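Can anyone check this?
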Amino acid sequence: MEIVNNEKKLNEYRQKAIALVSQMNLEEKVSQTLHPASAIERLNVKEYNWWNEALHGIARAGISTIFPQAIGLAATFDEDLLEKVGDAVSTEGRAKYNMQARREDRDIYKGLTFWAPNVNIFRDPRWGRGHETYGEDPYLTSRLGVRYVYGIQGHDAKHLKAAACAKHYAVHSGPEDIRHEFNAVATKQDMFETYLPAFKALVQEAKVEAVMGAYNRTNGEPCCGSKTLLKDLLRDTWGFKGHVTSDCWAIKDFHEGHHVTNSPVESVALAMNNGCDLNCGNLFVYLKEAVEQGLVKEERLDEALVNLFTTRFKLGIMGDETAFDKIPYNVVDDKSMKEFNKEVSKKCAVLLKNKNALLPLNKKKIKNIAVIGPNADNRRALVGNYEGTASRYVTVLEGMQDYLGDKVRVYTSEGCHLCKPKVTDLANGKDRFSEVEEVCALSDVVVCVMGLDSGLEGEEGDQGNQYASGDKPNLNLPGLQPKILELAKNSGKPVVLVVLSGSALDLSWAEENVDAIIQGWYPGAQGGAALAELLFGDANPEGKLPITFYSSTDDLPEFTDYSMEGRTYRYIKKDPLYPFGYGLSYTTYNVHDLKVSSDTLTDDGIDLEVIVKNTGDFAGRDTIQAYVKINAEAELTHVPNFSLKGIKKVELSKGKEKKVTIHLPIEAFALADENGEFVVNKGTATVYVGDQAPDKRSEALTGKGVLNATVKIPETKKL
């Protein structure tokens, strides 16, 4: 069912909004275009703050469930799970809203308009906000984003459970420190092939209620005032019916950073005239002057308000009763939420290396274990950014202590500061090295917990960002972490590296020297408990990389270059360290017997069928991935190496097998041309099916390849 899919009901809400707006004077109208919308008592309009965050849980308004950061959720490759997470988030959001509204608390972060998900493409691992996204692939981002929106907005035919927002529209992924003045230049081909598909999917499939413009310019136009993006594409071509909000204080960038206007009045006129309905910030107070000067027609202001109040009517917060009004506060952070959060966290982790099957560890054979490193007991490394407040945080150290109890001695050392040369200010450098050497010597196994936290990678302006306004200067483990890892290796004990980060790091040395590596992302408030269960085999890793792990920034184009050439698995020319779609398991799977419904592409696409068998010793969930490579007869430019076009999760007990079917529509065989139009090109396509990508590095790491078949494309046609 589509969200609020009753056209009669939608028209009713819009008519109510039109009637309400028609009773307002100009000052009242302007007051409704700012994120802290004022009350209009004579019309029984209560104050409402549009700004709320729900990237991976309800943020910034007290206690809530903090799920794994978005990049970790992306590693599940699990569409159904993303909708369940979104539903849990909106359940807590409604519960908190109901309580707060009852107590007349209408402050910031207390509304039902959630500015999530972030469906920008994580094109460069240096970008500090990449961990807010679903990774580097437009198909995966689209599928997960659509289902998260479904979870947030619900499936009630009359009302939205909450309102989701697709951000940041569009072509936005750093650098953070120049975002207020930066012009992202992208070809139409890259825009429609890579940067825009997720936004289109959220608008047309998920019926996302809001779209947020980005800070930067795209091809010369500031995104929050772009006729190309907001009018021509979003409204006229895609048929968007919701409301558009600016990013926060982005409109003042028009004259202060981008210099496309000369004054605040000109800036608000440009934004409003080109389709921005709501200002996160305070600049839209100048709309009164803009209307009085004739720079903005009052009819356009009315249209913006109708869009905004239609959303409020759809949410049922303008006096209607909804099915969601009775969700009680006690569902927030309850036992079932904590348990679900831990289950989600276990599904996010990616096993990158497991030499000689060191993992899972056997606690019956271990008497002493070392848990060391700056992220071993770092709460901030659990949650990423745009986070709420958990009632309890379980770090990896705490998770191991809780899991092992008194049966195994857990030694620990911080080892080093996350990025500085010493832990204690007055100490000499390397002030925890001797402690590390001792606890390693006393232990049977060493677990090193390293990486980053949101103080090192995040949004420009976030407190605590150490480098480049939140972007990473390189892919290295910062500070003395590499030295601590060397000390652990030199102890002669088996070493497990657990990386908590929101982005790809250069793990080349670890790949060569340590025994096992787990990418844990920012695993949420229950992350330590989840990772302990994974390390000891009570859960089986099933995550796959939603991003490419490069060996060095030397393998990357300039950060400011928005061409996709040389970026992500779809366009790289060098073998990566760890490829997109890669992730090991404690069990083994055999994917065999590929059948294709037709050897010639039809207008309905084709169906792929494989058998997946669990051939190992553990129950698990495999991720079947379908990729398409286009081999056109005509010479094409900028063709992806291959592209993900289908995913399916399959759960298998030891020794069991299942048939998996993936449908590839005709659109899966289309490429954007230089005009941004999608074309199915005459020739052939190679389809690949397996539980990894069809690249040499994946094959080298896993010792197996994927299945493939050739599909004829009989004619060239535009879609």
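Reply from J.R.: I decoded it. The chain has three domains: 7-330, 341-547, 589-718.
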